[in-house]
Amino acid sequence: MLMIPQVSQGLLGGNDLIGWILQIAFLGFFVIFMFYGQRFQLSIMLREVEKHLRRLKFIRDEGRKLTMETIKEIGKSQEDPTERVDQFLEYIAITPQSMDPSGIVWKLEHLLDVRDVRFKDEVKLMAPEADEVQLNNLENTLEAAMALNIIYKVIRHFYILGKKTLSLYIIMQLQMVLPLIMREAEAFASALKAFATGQPIGDGAGALVAAKLMHGHKTRKIAKDIVVATVPLEGRIAHVLKSEGPGGNVGKPGDGIRKIIKETKGKIATIVMVDAALKLEGEKPGEVAEGLGAAIGGPGVEQFKIEESVLKHKIPVNAVIIKEDIGDAVSPMRKEIFDAADTAIQRIKRLILERTKKGDAVIIAGIGNTIGIGQ
Amino acid sequence: MTEKTKSSTKTVSSFFLIIILVTLVLSVSALFYAVDAYSRNQTLNAGYFMLIGLIGLSLSAYMLLQTKRKPSRAAFEMPQVITTILCQKCGFKNVRDFQRGDYIFKETESCPKCNEKMMIASIYREVKEKEK
């Protein structure tokens, strides 16, 4: 204790040594930050990206593990599907050339058809004991695992590129979009779980509406993975169609609508399309809204076909949408969305009453993935 | 960050821990000197030591917090999904957890009240507002 005053005097003696040290340190900091400030910023951003990348890797690996477990459990394959699954996760599809856009829709449709057949064949080889419904669910599970793999690899690519080039702009862009990408990855992780167990997902809201309308009526297959039922509704004849459940399917509603129009020789008073749509932040999930146009997502092939068919016969197309966010769309269906199906049915009935006459024929198309929803 | 990156189980290096420990010891001694200087009416010295001690303490606390990384979720959390089975005839309702193979409009077991076939009327998950 006797040393303390000497120490403090040595440090702070009459020359105010601490003051000098602080001034030099301040100047040092100033100079260092002037020259290396960007480097510091870069390393902070890189650490942030690295943290998210670690999480993405975890999600990707868990997704792969869950997919593998589900395939082994359902498929009961004699051989280990690991290698085949890993190869599947790296599968690519090259989009058609669009320099001459004429006819690109049909090229894209052909590519999607071939992809679908190829995926189904692959899944059959991985899980020979799986039935049709399970095959569809497994295909969806694998697609979600594939999406997670791609997200991880793309983010890793830009991370490594940014680190190699020390480019602030690459890292900055990556850091800025990462919160949105993480949301998407978490959504795909939820989807993967739902697909693996066959639970209905938020995207199936449209299919649920159609299923509720056609339940108890005779259905027939009208297009690839699409069923239709003729249902009397408010004094009108409603051709209600949806993708064939309960396996994970979206089908080809465009072909279904086109065939119904052809069968009825274009005598359709109106078409009502019901689908789940992305809500804006601040809107409540399960809100129902009405509008015009073909309510259908995907690569655009089905929307194109519907628009072509209705244009030929000048049939008005109405849209009823059930709002939800990206996370809800691919995770197990929320109660609010399930309940919104009844509200949507009321809106469809009102729309038909107001826009058509008694005895008219209408088409009601429930769009979306019908996983976990029968008919 | 490559494939070899260790996930949540990454351990803190002993060198880093020693640095934290040294900073902590020095900061505590600085605070001790501050108290001593104050008792000798050397308020300026006491102020300097107090400043150094507090900065050191907060730095070591920050470094300690940084080492305590949040563990990743051990596995995919499965949300609770409810299946409601309804008897169309008597309205008997059975609510249970979702089981693989369940789907909406699937005919299930017979109703314990009227022996009529029951049907899955709904499958959904309930989300508490805090989760969102």
Description:
- The complex is a heterodimer of chains A (375) and B (132).
- Chain A has helices at 3-12, 17-75, 82-89, 104-126, 132-165, 168-197, 205-214, 253-263, 301-313, 326-330, 335-355; strands at residues 219-223, 226-233, 236-243, 270-278, 288-292, 317-324, 361-366.
- In chain A, helix 2 packs parallel to helix 6 (168-197), helix 4 crosses helix 5 and helix 5 runs antiparallel to helix 6 (168-197).
- Chain A is α/β, with parallel strands linked by helices.
- The termini of chain A are far apart.
- Chain A folds into two domains: 44-197, no CATH class; 202-366, 3-Layer(aba) Sandwich (Rossmann fold).
- The radius of gyration of chain B is 31 Å and the shape is rod-shaped.
- Residues 1-9 of chain B have low confidence and may be disordered.
- In chain B, helix 1 runs antiparallel to helix 2 (43-67).
- The longest helix of chain B has 26 residues, at 14-39.
- With 132 residues, chain B is of the alpha+beta class.
- In chain B, strand 3 (107-110) and strand 4 form a beta hairpin.
- Chain B is built from two helices and four strands.
- At the A-B interface, helix 1, helix 2, helix 5, helix 6 and helix 11 of A face helix 1, helix 2 and strand 4 of B.
> From the structure provided, what is the oligomeric state, counting identical versus distinct chains?
heterodimer
The geometry of chain B reads as rod-shaped
What structural class is derived from the secondary structure elements of chain B? alpha+beta
Helix content of chain B: 25-40%
Low-confidence stretches of chain B: 1-9
How are strands sequenced across the largest beta sheet of chain B? 2-1-4-3
Give the SSE order of chain B as H and E letters: HHEEEE
Using the CA coordinates, give the radius of gyration of chain A. Answer: 29 Å
Shape of chain A: elongated
Individual helix count of chain A: 11
CATH class designation of the largest domain in chain A: Alpha Beta
The counted number of beta strands of chain B is 4
At the fold tier of CATH, the topology name of the largest domain in chain A is Rossmann fold
